[in-house]
Amino acid sequence: MQALNSLHTPEEKLAALCKKYADLLEESRCRQKRLKALQKKQAQIVKEKIHLQAEHSKAILARSKLESLCREQQRHNKTLKEENAQRSREYDEQRKEAMLYFQTTLSDIEAQMEQHSSRNTELRQENMELVEKLKKLIEQYELREEHMDKVFKHKALQQQLMDAKLQRITEMMKEVEEKQQMERDVLLKDATDSRRKCEQMREQETQLKQQLSLYMDKFEEFQTTLAKSNEVFTTFRQEMEKMTKKIKKLEKETTQWRTKWESNNQALLQMAEEKTLRDGHFKALQGKLELLERLCRALQKERNDLNNRLSVLQEQGPEEPPAAQPEEPSTQEEPQDEEGTGLEIHEAPRPPETEHTADPTQD
After folding, report:
1. Fewest CB within 10 angstroms: 181, 190, 194, 362, which?
2. Residue 229 and residue 234: Cα distance in Å, rounded?
3. CA neighbours closer than 13 Å in the CB half-sphere of residue 314
4. Tell me: the pLDDT tens digits for 149-197?
């Protein structure tokens, strides 16, 4: 109004008003274009939001599946560890039983060997004693024979002197011969007994040798069983190594799944942060859109007022314009203040509620 008052002719005032009206139309058109671009961007951002929500739901499903797989893998690892522990315990028990059986058999064999060795020593001592007795008997017999020879020689020498005592001597000789026969019989019996004892000892030796062969066979069988047990132990150790390799592979896979799960969690956190930032930006854009709508409404009111004034001026003709009302500068100052706020329009999402707002072009 001050600018119009500064002008003198109504034509200049109309030209200034038209110029102002044209500027306002251009500004409103630019703002409408910006609003349409913002609406398009808002629709794209809404689509991106829906797509991100779908991806978020997919990521949550994958996360739940990964957690279930991790739990199943942990259960499988626990069962494998328990089975390995049970197998190791059973193998330790079998090994202990085999060692106890081996020790008992060895102790029995040693005790039997000691008994047989003691019997052999006793039999050897008895054989030595019998041999010594036989030697003594032979020596006595030889001494007696020598003595008898001497006696016969002495008797032969004294035959001539002892004819009278011949009968007595013959009788004595008969008695001596009978005694010798008796002694010979006794010695023969002792010899036969000693031979029988020697044969019995030989038979016992053969029996002991047979027993030793049996014990050797049993010892060889025990060695074969030990070899088999060692083979079983080697096979079990190989199986344990295979199981450890499988467990290592499963641990590697779990680490890979964990890394993937952590990366997914980080991606989800980043998406959540981006969502919060976009929500804040979206709220700021809503406030700016509300300010723009207020400006558009103010401009529309100002345009209507100007149209009314133009119609009034056209009706009055060359007459002077009426005095400025006090309400008009306030309506003109409001858009200036709102335009002077220096709003920065950023490209950000717009909620679907703003699509239903009144379009300034319709007014």
Report:
1. 362
2. 9
3. 6
4. 787 777 667 667 777 666 776 777 788 788 878 888 888 888 788 788 8
Packed helices 166-316 and 327-339: angle between N→C axes, nearest 10 degrees: 150
- Contact (Cβ atoms closer than 8 angstroms) between residue 46 and residue 355: no
| Residue 325 DSSP one-character state | P
Encoded tokens for 144 = 């007696």
- Residue linked to tokens 């074969």: 224
Is the C-alpha dihedral spanning 59, 61, 67, 69 positive or negative? negative
The residue among 259, 351, 336, 327 whose CA lies nearest residue 299 is 336
Query: Rounded to whole angstroms, how far apart are CA atoms 184 and 39?
Result: 149
pLDDT category of residue 123 using cuts at 50, 70 and 90 = confident
Asked if the model's pLDDT at residue 144 lies above 50, the reply is yes
What is the structure's pLDDT at 169?
Answer: 67
Cα–Cα distances (Å) from 291 to 28, 29, 33, 38, 341, in that order, read 14, 16, 16, 14, 10
**Helix, strand, coil % (nearest 5) of the chain?**
90, 0, 10
Angstrom distances, CA of residue 79 to CA of 76, 244, 250, 322: 5, 13, 13, 99
Q: At what angle do helices 10-158 and 166-316 cross, to 10 degrees?
A: 180
**Nearby residues of 293 by Cβ (< 8 Å), 6 or more positions away:** 357, 358, 360
First-last CA distance in the chain:
25
pTM here?
0.25
Mean pLDDT of 317-325: 50
Average pLDDT on 46-63 reads 91
**CA 120/CA 141 separation, integer angstroms:** 31
For residue 22, what pLDDT is reported? 92
For residue 357, what is the DSSP state? S
Would you state the structure tokens that stand for residue 265, as one six-digit string?
A: 């969690």
Res 236 pLDDT > 80: no
